[in-house]
From TrEMBL:
<dbReference type="InterPro" id="IPR039426">
    <property type="entry name" value="TonB-dep_rcpt-like"/>
</dbReference>
<keyword id="KW-0798">TonB box</keyword>
<keyword id="KW-0813">Transport</keyword>
<dbReference type="GO" id="GO:0044718">
    <property type="term" value="P:siderophore transmembrane transport"/>
</dbReference>
<keyword id="KW-0472">Membrane</keyword>
<dbReference type="InterPro" id="IPR012910">
    <property type="entry name" value="Plug_dom"/>
</dbReference>
<protein>
    <submittedName>
        <fullName>TonB-dependent receptor plug</fullName>
    </submittedName>
</protein>
<keyword id="KW-0675">Receptor</keyword>
<feature type="domain" description="TonB-dependent receptor-like beta-barrel">
    <location>
        <begin position="282"/>
        <end position="744"/>
    </location>
</feature>
<dbReference type="Pfam" id="PF07715">
    <property type="entry name" value="Plug"/>
</dbReference>
<feature type="domain" description="TonB-dependent receptor plug">
    <location>
        <begin position="139"/>
        <end position="217"/>
    </location>
</feature>
<keyword id="KW-1134">Transmembrane beta strand</keyword>
<keyword id="KW-0812">Transmembrane</keyword>
<dbReference type="GO" id="GO:0015344">
    <property type="term" value="F:siderophore uptake transmembrane transporter activity"/>
</dbReference>
<dbReference type="Pfam" id="PF13715">
    <property type="entry name" value="CarbopepD_reg_2"/>
</dbReference>
<keyword id="KW-0998">Cell outer membrane</keyword>
<dbReference type="InterPro" id="IPR000531">
    <property type="entry name" value="Beta-barrel_TonB"/>
</dbReference>
Amino acid sequence: MRFFVFCVLSILLAFPGFSQKITISGTVKEEGTGENLIGANIYDKVSQKGTVANQFGFYSYTTTGDSLDLYFSFVGFQAKHIQFQAKTDTVINVTLVPDGNLEEVVVSASDMDQIQEITRMSSVNVPIEQIKELPALMGEVDVFKVLQLLPGVQSGTEGGSGLYVRGGGPDQNLILLDGVPVYNASHLFGFFSVFNADAINNVELIKGGFPSRYGGRLSSVIDISMKEGNMQEFKGEGSIGLIASKVTFEGPIKKDKTSFILSARRTYLDILAQPIIKASTEGDENIGYYFYDLNGKVNHIINDKNRLYLSVYSGDDKAYSKYKNFYVNDNERTDYDEEFGLKWGNFISALRWNNVINSRLFSNYTFTYSRYNFDLFSNYEETITGLGTTETNVYSDRYFSGIRDWAGRADFEFIPNPDHYFRFGTNVIFHKFSPGVYASKSSSGDNDLQLGADELNSTENSVYAEDDFNISSRLKANLGLHYSGFNTDNQHYNSLQPRISARYLVDESTSIKASYVTMAQFIHLLTNAGLGLPTDLWVPSTANIGPQKAMQVALGGVKNFNSFEFSAEAYYKTMDGLIEYKDGATYLNLDEDWQDKVAVGEGVSYGLELLLQKKVGKISGWIGYTLSKTERRFDEINFGEWFPYKYDRRHDVSFALTHEWTENKDFSAVWVYGTGNAVSLPTQRYEGAEVNTRFGGSWRPDIEYYESRNNFRNRAYHRLDLSFSWWKTKKWGERKWTLGIYNVYNRMNPFFMDIGYDQQSNKKVKQYSLFPIIPSFSYGFKF
C-alpha cells in the first residue's frame, strides 16, 4: 500500500503545476498542554484560501506565491497572526493560547471556521467545557446526555444514555473512541454512558452526509478523541459526586517528547449501601452494584515526522447478590453460600502511528483489539457435615455472550493545494461472535448441560476514497465512494456506497447544503427492551439474515451572524434489513437458533431540524427543534402493516444555556419537551378457554387483543434542570462546587405504561414514573 502511494504521488508531484508550489505544514496545539486542536483553521489573507488541522493537529497549505499572511484560529483561543516570505516548503508548528474572554476572539480575515464554509452537513461539535457546565443527572457529567439535546437525537427513555438518531436504533450508531468501535456505551443499565468527560479532547456527532471514511453503521457517527496528556507539566483534576468519583492525572514522561494521561472513575453505591444491607440481614446477605472506567494513553514523539499513540479503555458493571446461611437436619449440618448476578463491560486498545510522508501527505496506521462481554451467572456451594464426614458440592449456571474484534486500518490525507483535500484508506476487522451460550455445571459432573449458538467468525473489510474540493469560489463538494465486504459462514456480501455532499455560498454568511449517502451495516443487535440493556446480543449477517442498508438525502441552509449559527435541515431516510424479535421470542429461547426468532423488515424516517447555536461568549448554548416521523414494517409483525417506531417522536424541543456571570460563578439550565413515545396496549380483553390445573381446579386466562403495534402514546415528556457552580483559586490549584437540580418542577414523566387497576378494581391504563425532582452536588478540584 505504501509503495503504491509513493508511486502515485511521485507521478503527481512531477507535473510543473505541483513542483512550482510552496507548502506550509505543521501542527496546531494548545500552549501549555500540547493537546491537538482538532479542526483549527489556517487562513491566508493574501490568497483568501486556507485549510484545517486534522484530528492529530496536522495541517498542510500549498500556495503559488512566496508572500504569506497566515491566521491560525480556534474557537475559545486567541488567534495567531504570522507574516513571512517563503522560497521553499516550510514547517511551522503553532501553539494557541486559551482566551478567558471569548467575546474578544474575532479574526475578521478568517472565516474558515464558520459553519457556512464547511462542505459537510448534519454534523455538530459541542465543546467539552460546555458539556461539563450543563446540568447533569445526579451530578454525573455525561457526553451522551448532552448529545441528546441536539436536533434529530433523543434518549428513548427517561434518564437513558442511549442515542436514537433520525429514526435509527442504538446499534446503528458508530461510536468511536480513538478510532475503535464501542459496542455497549452504557453504565447503570443505560442511565450513564461509559465516557469520562475529563479524559476527552473532542466530540463530533455526524447525523447525515457521512464522509466516505466512515462505514459499518446506518444512523450516526460519534467520533470521540481522548486527551493526549500534558507535554509540559504534571496536572491533575477530579471530582466527588453523589454516586461516583473520578480523578485524572496527566503530564510529561519526558518533557516535549513523551506524555501520559490516566483517568479513573468509580461509583460507590455498593459501598454506601453495604452497612444498611448487612444490618437488615444480620450479615447473611450482601447486595450491590458498581461500575468503573479506566482510561489511559501514552503519546510519544519519535521525531518531527513520526508519532506513536497507545490508548486503552477498560470498564465494567457488576450487579450481584450474595447470601450465606446454614440449616441443621437430623445429624447433618449444611452450610451454603450462593451468589447470583450479572456483569458486563468493554476493553478497548489502540496503537496508532502517525507518519508525515511529506509536506502534503499525512498517514495514520491503527491496530486495535476490543471486546464486549455479558455474563449472567449463578453459583451455589454447599458443605454437608455429618458424623465424621464432610461433603462439598458446587453448582454453577452461566449465560454468556459477547463480541471480540481484531482490526487494522491505514488512512491517508493528501492536500496538493487549497482546492483539494483527498482522503483514502483501507480497513479490515476480524470479528468473533458469541451470540448466547447457557452452561450448567456441577462438581460431580452429573447432568452438565450446554445450550446455545456456536461461536461465529466473520471478516469485514473496506476501502474508501473521497475528495473535498472547490468547484468555484462559491460551490464546494465532497465526493466519495466507500466499498465494504463481509464474510461469514461461507457467505459473502458486498456493498458499494456512493457519498456526496455539496455547499453553495449565497453570500459571505449564508450557504445552502445538500447530501446523498448510502450505508451498509453487517452486524445486528438483538434487543428486548430498547434500553441498551446488557442482555442485547450482537450477531452477524448470515446466509439467512442479510445486512442492514440505508439511504439518506438531506437539504438545508446555514446562516452565520455575529456569534450565532443557525441551521435548518430536512432529511428523508429509508432502511432495509432491520431485524426485531418476533412476538413472544427472547434471548432466553436457547433451544432455538436466533435466526428463527427474528423478523426482517424495513423502516422510513423523515423530518425537519432547526438549530440556533452560540459557542462563544459569557452566554452560550443552543435552541433546537425537531419535527419528525419514523415508521417500521415487518411481514410477521402487526399483520404486515406499517406501525410507529417505539421512539418515534413528532415534536422535540431542547434549550441549553450556560452563563458565566462573574469570573468565578456560572449558571446553566436545560429544558426539554418531547411528544410521548409510542406504546402497545390492548384494546380488548376477554376470558379464554377453561384450563385445568394439576391440583384439580381450573381457571380461565385473560386473552388480550392488540389492535396494532404501538397503538397508543405516552403523555408528553418535559422537564427543567438547573445547575450553579462557583470556584476559587487556592495555593495548590482550584476547587469548584456545583449544585444541581434535575426535574426542577417535579414532573412525573412516563417511564412506561401498563394495564392496571384503580381502588375500585376497575381496569385502567397506569403510568409508571422513574425520576422525581433530584438535587445533587459535586466537589471538583484541579492542581
